[in-house]
Amino acid sequence: MISIIIPTYQHGDSLKECLDAIYAQSYTDFEVIVVNDGSTDNTANLLKEYKNPINAIYQENSGANSARNRGYREAKGEYLLFCDADLIANPEMLVKMKNALKNNPEAAYSYCDFMWGIKAFKLFPFSAEELKTKNYIHTTSLIRRELFPGFDESVERLQDWDLWLTMMESGRIGTYIPETLFTVKPRKSGMSGWLPSVAYKIPWKKLGIKIKRLETFREAEEIIRKKHSLN
To answer: For residue 1, how many other CB atoms are within 10 A of its CB?
Structure first.
């Protein structure tokens, strides 16, 4: 069984579409755990009224990693899939991710290409050297439960990069599926964000320009680099 864990905070506008896509999967041996991380919107009512079975958990707002770990502790499946509430899964996502692990027993998790709005993110086969230089694997990957180390709740950003680096340091690798299996819906706030890659290459500070999102990203990146002793 696959345990699908959805941490959600103020995602009442997108959660139903996320859940509907999960229940439209061709693979049906799964459970859904939604951790409502202190939402004050219509999330609680949506979960009560949703027609398909959900293990709905409420906790005071504690952050995405706390919500993910709470869901993990409740999970009963052999596999874990962390799915943000603004994500729409392709109907074949679960079966293809599971088959990838079945066909690659040395891999601890399987990951794929994805869309972020209209932007396509085409990834590549697992590379430890590439992973040390950049965060290229999305949180929504299928993980073998017995190899999952938990999310570091002190890490507030780039949690996925931190997770894959932690697993890599224990000899765990991923297997790549060269297909687009889900879409992330952009929103002004929340767990998802993206800027064109060229934005990170321009020397904004030398130009006397401050871009808050870039500065926040650089600070988060430095925290991860120091934790994992990356140059």
So the answer is: 12
